[in-house]
Amino acid sequence: MTSDDSGAQDRRETKAAKQQEKAREGGEARADYEAVQQATEDKTVRLKALRLAKEEADQAKPDKPKASKKR
Predict the structure, then answer these.
(1) How far apart are CA 4 and CA 6, in angstroms?
(2) Which H helix or E strand runs over 21?
């Protein structure tokens, strides 16, 4: 009867180890996802600031007259 108990205990331990491994992998995947999201948000903020600065600089300088082509 001890062999049945031993086998059942082995299965429980294996199942618990697999669940812990899945939980660890899930945590890593979530951390990776959040890092990518944060990087995307940071890049978006930086690019928006650059675009707004360029637009402001373009408005501040006077428009150059367009050169007419002579034929």
Answers:
(1) 5
(2) helix 2-60
Cα separation of 68 and 71, whole Å?
A: 10
Q: Global pTM?
A: 0.56
Torsion over CA: 56, 57, 63, 66 (sign): negative
pLDDT in tens, the chain (71 residues): 455 688 999 999 999 999 999 999 999 999 999 999 999 999 999 999 999 999 999 998 877 767 667 66
**Phi and psi angles of residue 41, each rounded to the nearest 5 degrees, phi first:** -65, -45
Closest by Cα among 1, 22, 3 to 11: 3
What are the residue boundaries of the structural domains of the chain, listed by start?
Answer: 1-58
